[in-house]
Design goal:
By secondary structure, the chain is mainly alpha-helical. The protein contains 20 helices and no strands. α10 runs parallel beside α12, α11 packs across α13 and α14 packs antiparallel against α15. The N terminus and C terminus are likely disordered.
Length: 530
């Protein structure tokens, strides 16, 4: 990784420099060994089609095991200091490549054709689930079912725990070859949902610090929109700038390939740090930079650079992702936990399930109101969406932050509950996804034809015709349909104006390029590698 050197173990300050360096060497060696072990183990499990222990779960278990062993064997503090989960390290070094790769590897057609649904689930749904979780946790506290937290802190817990991370689910979706639209929904929702959860959490912690000044609800909404829209605009802006630079700088000559790749790799980080520097959300920003750079900038690169850049981002994102799960497992074993509040953990898990159901089924109902009969989200897909709401690294990192943000004891309780939820969902839900998909019979739907073909058959960009007569009761429905139409007109705008302006190719070539199955993030392509 090479980035670990950024962490300076404060605990090890007392010892001599030589000793300190030795401890650093041992710490990093351990990390590299665990990375190698989890990659090898993940490969073996995939080869044998053993879906009960996905790669992420395996990495988490390796981290947990080594952490427990280090605890028992009473390893030196200086070595142990190399394993403390630093939120800054996570947010600045490990998360950006993962988020950028997820935006960069989005297959544009399925994503944009389901764009309305994805936004509804990610923004409306995350909001619903965090409020529902927060309110239920608060009521549980009032009824003495669980540890009682103030209302704003309950909402902070709701926000951080509504960040889903279906890495394991998505890799199994790819292995088994599920329906394209279901994949696009789960993937799109999880990507936007992280950004949404961070913005919500930050907004809630602002409210908490300003509770005395009596900030009203309206200001909270404005602040949230400011963060989200501002970050999105800066990300899109950086993406477009990079597209124009690569279009007009003429870097696609053979001997400038190295320069081209270096510049391309620096842009995402520039976008991330720009947003963080402006007090916005880097995650939202880098995600949209990824989407825009894939759509416009990528086609301005020379062919060799395109291959290199795709491979490079795939490489660092899988390294970062595996490392995050190992890191998390190790930290869970090492941290101080307040296990006295078992009730809090137990009820939180039930409440999260309820909130996830409220999110998925209410949003799916809204989306189905708009969509014509042949494009409805079937109930089995809704159930699969509900089931795939694992909690992962994002929730864990935010919970760690809450330990600093909240008063003594409260943050600790939230952190313990979150770690228990992450471990349970990653191991149990991650392990049983294959069985669930087979039970719901959503396996192998879009598996036979080529991706482009099955997509064209099911739902190209053609906006469904809206000739039905609308009674006054259908006013809302018509409004929603107008919005639906506008997403289709956006694709026309993109094809006719944006693509010719920002790329050196014409629209037709771009279309052909889109039809190819995109290798998705995490592991391999959309189809199973059987």
């Amino acid at each position: 990784m090479g980035i670990e050197d950024e962490i300076s173990p404060a605990d090890a300050r007392g010892s001599s420099p030589g000793k300190e360096q030795q401890a650093a060497g041992v710490g990093i060696l351990l990390q590299i060994m665990m990375l190698v072990l989890s990659f090898v183990l993940g490969h073996v499990l995939r080869r044998h089609k053993f879906y009960y222990l996905p790669e992420a779960s395996a990495s988490l278990l390796i981290g947990l095991t080594v952490g427990v062993l280090a605890n028992i064997s009473n390893t030196e503090t200086s070595i142990r200091a190399w394993f403390n989960f630093h939120e800054e390290f996570f947010f600045l070094f490990l998360l950006p490549p993962i988020i950028f790769q997820s935006g960069f590897s989005l297959s544009p057609k399925p994503f944009f054709s389901n764009f309305g649904a994805i936004v509804t689930f990610a923004i409306g749904g995350t909001f619903i689930s965090s409020i529902v979780t927060g309110v239920l946790v608060y009521l549980g506290g009032l009824m003495y079912l669980m540890y009682r937290l103030p209302f704003v802190e309950c909402l902070m817990f709701g926000a951080l725990i509504s960040a889903t991370d279906p890495v394991t689910v998505l890799s199994i979706f790819q292995e088994l070859g599920t329906d394209m639209n279901l994949y696009a929904l789960v993937f799109g929702e999880s990507v936007l949902n992280d950004a949404m959860a961070i913005s919500l959490y930050r907004t809630m912690s602002l409210v908490k610090s300003h509770v005395s000044s009596g900030q009203n609800f309206f200001m909270v909404v404005v602040r949230f929109l400011e963060t989200f829209v501002g970050s999105m605009s800066s990300g899109v802006g950086v993406g477009f700038t990079s597209a124009l630079l690569f279009k007009y700088a003429g870097l696609d000559i053979d001997n400038l390939q190295n320069l081209e790749c270096c510049l391309f790799v620096l842009f995402p980080y520039f976008s991330y740090m720009l947003s963080e520097g402006l007090g916005l959300s880097g995650i939202v920003s880098i995600l949209f930079t990824g989407i825009v750079m894939k759509h416009y900038t990528f086609s301005n690169l020379s062919e060799k650079s395109q291959q290199f850049v795709s491979a490079f981002f795939h490489l660092i994102s899988s390294l970062a992702e595996t490392f995050v799960f190992i890191y998390m497992g190790f930290d869970i074993a090492m941290e101080q936990h307040s296990w006295s509040h078992v009730g809090f953990i137990f009820f939180s898990i039930i409440f999260i399930g309820v909130a996830r159901a409220a999110n998925v089924f209410s949003c799916a109902y809204l989306v189905n109101l708009v969509r014509p009969a042949h494009r409805q989200i079937p109930v089995k897909h809704q159930k699969a969406l509900w089931y795939s709401g694992l909690r992962g690294a994002m929730a864990f990192a935010l919970a760690l932050q809450s330990v600093h943000d909240l008063p003594e004891g409260h943050g600790q309780t939230i952190f313990t509950a979150t770690t228990a939820i992450v471990v349970l969902t990653v191991l149990l839900i991650g392990g049983s996804t294959g069985t669930m998909l087979e039970a719901l019979q959503v396996v192998g739907d879009g598996h036979d034809g080529s991706l482009g073909d099955s997509f064209e058959r099911n739902n190209g960009y053609i906006a469904p015709s809206y000739n039905e007569e609308a009674s006054s009761a259908n006013k809302i429905k018509m409004k929603l349909k107008e919005f639906h139409k506008s997403t289709a007109s956006f694709t026309a705008l993109d094809r006719n104006y944006l693509t010719p302006f920002f790329t050196s190719q014409n629209g037709d070539e771009e279309e052909e390029h889109d039809d190819e199955p995109m290798p998705s993030s995490r592991s391999g392509g959309f189809h199973g590698h059987s």
